[in-house]
């Protein structure tokens, strides 16, 4: 190949490789790319902010749980009866002590109304020695569903009874039972027992006047009046 041919080819290649000046279309493409990059950066910032907010939310929830647990520990340490409902009901009961519905404060019975009725079906039975010298027998029972209840038996109490009576699964052989609830708030308080040979439905007057009927009330559904009063605090401004 001659030198003249080589020189002509180099000129052709050189002319093809010349870079042109950017036009308006190129500038628009660069601007669009720049805007996309800006949006991506703002999106990354937003994602980081959302992660920070979620982290803060989780931290607040953990703090709330921690504070709640500390409060529970405080209550358990300062007020042992708060997690020993039987003691809040029984311990310290004297003859004139009133027992209240734990849910609404309705007066249910007095200490003189307590009347021990033993049952051979009780899983356990214990005596609470009281400040007034009385001893209250607390019996533990279990129903067919496996739920256990500590009860105190009473000769009478201001409860609502729901007849007809049921003879099945009675904790006291020879007696049928009805559910007993609070007449004010309808909370389940325990059971009323009547002789099994009685009609399934009787009047409240007959139940209360009979010497053969009694009630078994759940300890943790009741509260001593003096114990409830001890939980109330009088503001210093009210004290002279």
Catalogue the unreliable spans: 13-19, 71-85
Give the ordered list of helices and strands. HHHEEEEEEEEHEEH
Q: Distance between termini?
A: 124 Å
The 3D shape can be described as elongated
Helix content: 25-40%
Radius of gyration: 40 Å
Number of helices: 5
For the residues shown, what is the average pLDDT? Answer: 77
Q: What summary fits the major beta sheet?
A: 7 strands, antiparallel
Strand content: 15-25%
Helix and strand content put the structural class at alpha+beta
- The largest sheet has its strands arranged as 3-4-5-9-8-7-6
Number of strands: 10
What's the arrangement of secondary structure elements?
Blueprint: H1 3-16, H2 24-78, H3 85-90, E1 98-101, E2 107-110, E3 124-129, E4 135-142, E5 148-154, E6 160-166, E7 175-181, E8 188-195, H4 204-209, E9 214-218, E10 222-224, H5 225-230
Antiparallel strand pairs: 1-2, 1-10, 3-4, 4-5, 5-9, 6-7, 7-8, 8-9
Q: Could you walk me through the main structural features you see in this protein, from its secondary elements to its overall organization?
A:
With 240 residues, this protein is α+β, with helices and mostly antiparallel strands. The protein is built from five helices and ten strands; from the N terminus they run H-H-H-E-E-E-E-E-E-E-E-H-E-E-H. The protein has helices at 3-16, 24-78, 85-90, 204-209, 225-230, and strands at 98-101, 107-110, 124-129, 135-142, 148-154, 160-166, 175-181, 188-195, 214-218, 222-224. The strands form two sheets. Strands 3-4-5-9-8-7-6 form a seven-stranded antiparallel sheet. Strand 1 (98-101) and strand 2 form a beta hairpin. The longest helix is centred in the first third of the chain and has 55 residues, at 24-78. It is elongated and about 110 Å long. The termini are far apart. The model is unreliable at 13-19 and 71-85 (pLDDT under 50).
């Amino acid at each position: 190949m001659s030198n003249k041919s080589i020189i002509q080819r180099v000129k052709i290649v050189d002319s093809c490789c010349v870079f042109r000046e950017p036009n308006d279309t190129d500038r628009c493409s660069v601007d669009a790319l720049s805007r996309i990059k800006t949006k991506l950066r703002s999106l990354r910032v937003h994602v980081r902010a959302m992660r920070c907010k979620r982290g803060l939310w989780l931290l607040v929830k953990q703090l709330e749980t921690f504070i709640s647990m500390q409060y529970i520990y405080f209550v358990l340490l300062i007020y042992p009866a708060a997690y020993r409902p039987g003691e809040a009901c029984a311990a310290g009961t004297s003859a004139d002590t009133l027992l209240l519905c734990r849910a609404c404060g309705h007066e249910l019975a007095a200490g003189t109304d307590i009347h021990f009725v033993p049952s051979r079906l009780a899983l356990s039975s214990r005596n609470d020695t009281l400040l007034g010298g009385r001893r209250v027998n607390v019996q533990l029972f279990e129903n067919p569903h496996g739920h256990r209840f500590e009860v105190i038996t009473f000769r009478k109490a201001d409860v609502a009874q729901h007849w007809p009576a049921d003879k099945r699964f009675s904790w006291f052989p020879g007696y049928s039972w009805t559910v007993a609830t609070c007449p004010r708030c309808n909370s389940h308080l325990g059971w009323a027992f009547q002789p099994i040979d009685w009609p399934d439905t009787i009047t409240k007057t007959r139940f209360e006047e009979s010497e053969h009927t009694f009630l078994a009330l759940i300890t943790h559904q009741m509260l001593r009046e003096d114990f409830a009063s001890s939980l109330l605090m009088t503001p210093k401004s009210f004290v002279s």
